[in-house]
Write a structure and sequence with these properties.
alpha/beta; three-stranded antiparallel β-sheet; 13 strands; six-stranded mixed β-sheet
Length: about 325
Amino acid sequence: MDGNATGRFEEEFSDGSRPGRASNHKLRMVLSGLLVLLVTTSVVVRVVRAPTTLSPLAQTGHDKAPVQTSAPHAVGPASANVVREFGGCELSVSAGAPVVPVGSCTVLEIGDSLGNDLGWGLARELPSGSSLNLVQLDKSATGLANAGYYDWPTELETDLGLYHPQLVLICLGGNDEQGMEVDGSAIQFPSPAWTAAYLTRVRQLITEATASGALVMWVGMPVMEDPDYSQGMEILNSLYQQGVRADPNAAFVSTWQLFSNPEGAYQAVADVNGIPENLREPDGIHYSFTGEDVIATYVIDEIAANFHVQLTPTNPAVITDW
């Protein structure tokens, strides 16, 4: 309500007399103005708040707006062995389940900037105009070690409620080689107390997703150029594997051998589909454009193999030689 409207409203009744027809007309005009003001304010609030609700990922660094795309449309009967009712999504962890068309599924992909790399590759490799819907909600510089900066369990709870995915892809860890605060005390990476606390957070994220009815695929960290940093990633990968083993509706996918040369070491260049390509960025951490396609191709193949569905990358990018 503006100050002029308030003044006019009070002036009509300031002498205590009964308002006449002219006063009633003025009163109706004032009230109409107030109604328009209230409606306008309500609309503005909704327009401003909506993006923060629907787009929780960061606006800077490697992050982009959420990507929603699609993959192969296929129609097929639901397998009798499917563990959960997905309403047309045929992903299944049941041993011996027949391989069927993937159906209509929503895949939520979350993680740090390496997760972003994976998500961008998936957005290109999952065919458009079909019924596998990708929702990419990564945030750079995040992980599970610093919940004070970004609380992934809380964010995931919101995302699960918004998108109701049948599969959650998790790819993070690049920022987690650091100390943590637990119950007000600082604990150092990778002490026994640290690994125990971190494993608890890993399991919390997995359980939160599977309790919502989704399956989980945790994509591990790759070999890194810096040997010490790479060793830290191996420690984290072992914790992701432990977390996944505790839940029958979750799977772990290792990328270590995929991006290691025959000697098991970091190498930035390899032949992809017979052509020499850079797989990694100059920082020795992130994936290049081609590397994004390589990991996306690999993850799509792993989704098909682990969850018994027919799923083929649009333009498969495969390492053919080192």
